[in-house]
Amino acid sequence: MGTSNETIWTVAYSPDGRFVASGGNDHILRVWDTRLHDLAFELECAIPSIWTAAWAPDGKQIAAGSADGKVCIFDVKKREPSVEFKVGQSDKVYTISWSPNGDVLATGCFNDAVWLWIPKTGKAKKSPFRGHKSHVYCIAWSPDGTRLISGALDHTVRVWDTDKGQTLFKGPLLGHKNSIQGLAYSSDGKQFASGDVEESPRVQIWDAETGKPLLPPVSEELKRTFQEAEAEAYPNPESDPGTPSKMNAAAAITAVAWLPSGKHFVSSSVDGLTRIWGAQKGYHTRETAGQKESVNALAVSADNTKLATASDDHIIRIFDPISLEQLTDFRTDHTDSMLAVHLTPDASRLVTASKDKTVRFWDVGSGKLQHVIKAHTDSVRTLAVAPDGKKLASGADDNTILIWDMQTYDQIAGPFRHDGCVRALCFSPDGARLLSGSDDCTARIWDVFTDKDAFDIIRVHAGAVGAVDWSSDGKTLLTAGADDWTVWVWNATTGEPIHGPLEGDGIKGIQAAAFSPDSQYILAGSSSGTLCIWETNTGKVVLDRQEKVNVRYC
């Protein structure tokens, strides 16, 4: 039909079959007329090479992905780019596909992730879907748009719930011994096919409802090969990153908090260490010693006089937050691991939450127990104290949030309910609203005084929301993904995203995140042991630290 002197990487038919788009190394998308057997027109975009292209269902747009991680959406009528955006840091776009209704664009990328985008704006619709162990080469939508399948260099196929971003069928589908290069759904959505690039290429047909292989039958020898590969890639089924879990026990960093000056921050980790870091250069200046049990939570008093940590050994330790000199400690009577700790604004009292389903109040000076709340029916995972010190919120694995009077210990609001365990809580600066994050992939804002259902629900994370925070001026929110490894920044009034998804080099499984005291920066700590700081106004990384324990001292 025509020729090009450059390598051609992709071809795509228009919905009506009249045209074919082709792309290669010369950054030009050529559109050919199949009736005239000639070039119809050319589309140019500022991308080095076009690796993948797809027509929108209505035929009015063509999306192209490139080797430098850029996506360009062309207006076919105007014959010019309408939207351009970059997928991620140091990423490459291998495959691209429109949803059946044309409202969403999906990309499969070099950095092992699947992304969903809003074509009109070029903004991410959700955080990336993570789970593959290597490059994602192909994707395909179900006819109803509720599911997306992806195939990768890791020899696996994954089926995603496009609303929640979760892998269905409890993990990857194993039916190939080599890289997956092709995927397709049947027109009725009841089956899908996957193809690989073995020496004897294999095509596998799957039942779309069960995830079971249909044709050809999988031999016992091949089953053993797949099982061995699965055991090597996923030694612990609970560790599959495409399936959110309640608690990542291998997490390095369990909690972070800024010191009131904003010049330093503190982190705790499963190695039993609590560290003070300089926010400007990221070097840790002090660390605790002599403790082996995991430090699961920490809290800094508003007056910067006390730092409290809660550990697996059931001991509360109080430190000077500047010198990290231990001031006191006391053993609690919790019967299981403590998961959260919070100091009142005046630092006179301390609240702890535990796997033993209780919330306990303590006098900091004497270490004496003041009160025990036994209202939750499962592990209490998170706490938040209102800025005025009068209200306490507790969130648990029983999917509920309860609000308590700090003086009388009476329940004054709730239960507020999620569809998964509650991982994170934060009061607004005026104490009237509560922000929560959950394993149900949502963050929700609750009106504390009306005791009504959430009036704003954030559905963007592809997995559990591991951390939330409210800016000091009340205008901005942050949510962080424990499973999708991203941070989003939100307008607290409109609920619209300001920045996101924010990613950091080496950030995996964000367990803790917080605004700086002046709200100019965002700090996050992850299960990979990496700390990262972003600038709130721009979303740019200003500091990341991957050296874990092996870093220089100031």
Automatic annotation (TrEMBL):
<protein>
    <submittedName>
        <fullName>WD40 repeat-like protein</fullName>
    </submittedName>
</protein>
<dbReference type="InterPro" id="IPR015943">
    <property type="entry name" value="WD40/YVTN_repeat-like_dom_sf"/>
</dbReference>
<feature type="repeat" description="WD">
    <location>
        <begin position="129"/>
        <end position="170"/>
    </location>
</feature>
<feature type="repeat" description="WD">
    <location>
        <begin position="86"/>
        <end position="127"/>
    </location>
</feature>
<dbReference type="InterPro" id="IPR020472">
    <property type="entry name" value="WD40_PAC1"/>
</dbReference>
<dbReference type="InterPro" id="IPR036322">
    <property type="entry name" value="WD40_repeat_dom_sf"/>
</dbReference>
<feature type="repeat" description="WD">
    <location>
        <begin position="253"/>
        <end position="287"/>
    </location>
</feature>
<feature type="repeat" description="WD">
    <location>
        <begin position="415"/>
        <end position="448"/>
    </location>
</feature>
<feature type="repeat" description="WD">
    <location>
        <begin position="331"/>
        <end position="372"/>
    </location>
</feature>
<keyword id="KW-0677">Repeat</keyword>
<feature type="repeat" description="WD">
    <location>
        <begin position="458"/>
        <end position="500"/>
    </location>
</feature>
<feature type="repeat" description="WD">
    <location>
        <begin position="1"/>
        <end position="35"/>
    </location>
</feature>
<dbReference type="InterPro" id="IPR001680">
    <property type="entry name" value="WD40_rpt"/>
</dbReference>
<dbReference type="InterPro" id="IPR011047">
    <property type="entry name" value="Quinoprotein_ADH-like_sf"/>
</dbReference>
<keyword id="KW-0853">WD repeat</keyword>
<dbReference type="Pfam" id="PF00400">
    <property type="entry name" value="WD40"/>
</dbReference>
<feature type="repeat" description="WD">
    <location>
        <begin position="288"/>
        <end position="320"/>
    </location>
</feature>
<dbReference type="InterPro" id="IPR019775">
    <property type="entry name" value="WD40_repeat_CS"/>
</dbReference>
<feature type="repeat" description="WD">
    <location>
        <begin position="510"/>
        <end position="544"/>
    </location>
</feature>
<feature type="repeat" description="WD">
    <location>
        <begin position="373"/>
        <end position="414"/>
    </location>
</feature>
<dbReference type="GO" id="GO:1990234">
    <property type="term" value="C:transferase complex"/>
</dbReference>
